[in-house]
Amino acid sequence: TKKILGVQPIRNTFNGKMSFFSRTLSVILRCWTRWYDRDDPGGRGDWEDLKNLRMENPGKICLKPSGIDAVTVDGEIPAKETGQYIYATDIGFICRNEDQEFEKCLDYKVRFRCPCIAPPLCWTDWFDRDDPNGQGDYEDLKRLRKEYPGQICPKPFRIQAVTVFGNIPAEDTGHTFQAYNTEVGFICRNEDQQFGRCMDYKVRFRCPCFFPPECNPICQ
User: Fold this and answer.
1) N or C: which end of the chain has fewer CB within 10 A?
2) Residue 212: what pLDDT?
3) What percent of the chain has pLDDT over 70?
4) In this predicted model, what pLDDT tens digit does every residue of 107-116 receive, in sequence order?
5) Sequence-ordered list of residues with C-beta below 8 angstroms from that of 203, at least 6 positions apart, any chain
6) Bridge partners of residue 71, in order along the sequence
7) What is the C-alpha to C-alpha distance for residues 23 and 79, in angstroms, rounded to an integer?
8) 3-state secondary structure the chain
9) In degrees to the nearest 10, what's the CA dihedral of 207, 209, 211, 216?
10) Exposed/middle/buried for 96, CB within 10 Å: 0-12, 13-18, 19+?
11) How many CA atoms, within 13 angstroms, populate the side-chain half-sphere of residue 16?
12) Out of the domains of life, which is the source (predicted)?
């Protein structure tokens, strides 16, 4: 019987709970490490075991990975689909040439699922790029990022909108919003209001306090 144990990727345990205008972390974040390819199938086979990987990459792999993923170096074929006899356990990934029926092991690379540290979060400055004249008040992320490059993280965790005058929370104004979320930003259209037009709003976002401008700030 082929020994193929635990090779399939583990489901992402990042569970974003959406409220009307926020996204919060509800569980511990778990992230994939980078790919490792420390061995090739010459000799006994391909040994991507944790003991040697940790020695060669100190501090890069957690003590108790919750998942392991293995694919071929060429073509990135999942190990479970290669038809080879492989071992994926708590010691890492091993493919032994002596176990194969017709050929030696393919060359594999592996990665591991580990806890990752949730970054400290901070509010951005308030942004007020539009006023309610014309179509309404458009404080959407696409336009905000264009006008304020590098000041808003790629994936905000929360959004907050208040009126420019009086700092009244948007949800207390009675207005109808086309968008009020961390994916689009904030949009109030005059045509959607039952009485009058939109008020003038400003918005801010909850982001990691420090983040690279060109990449997802979490789990890279």
Assistant:
1) N
2) 54
3) 81
4) 999 999 998 7
5) 126, 127, 128, 139, 144, 159, 160, 161, 185, 186
6) 78, 109
7) 35
8) CCCCCCCCCCCCCCCEEECCCEEEECCCCEEECCCECCCCCCCCEEEEEHHHHHHHCCCCCCCCCCEEEEEECCCCCEHHHCCCCCEEECCEEEEEHHHCCCCCCCCEEEEEEEECCCCCEEECCCECCCCCCCCEEEEEHHHHHHHCCCCCCCCCCEEEEEECCCCCEHHHCCCCCCEEECCCEEEEEHHHCCCCCCCCEEEEEEEECCCCCCCCCCCC
9) -30
10) middle
11) 12
12) Eukaryota
Domain ranges of the chain: 16-115, 121-208
Token digits for 78? 């999942």
Copy the structure tokens of residue 107: 């060359």
**In angstroms, rounded to a whole number, what is the distance separating the alpha carbons of residues 30 and 113?**
6
Q: Between residues 217 and 191, which one has the greater pLDDT?
A: 191
Q: Residue 52 corresponds to which tokens in the numbers above?
A: 């040697």
| pLDDT, mean over the chain | 83
Length of the chain: 220
Instruction: Name the amino acid, one letter, at 107.
Output: D
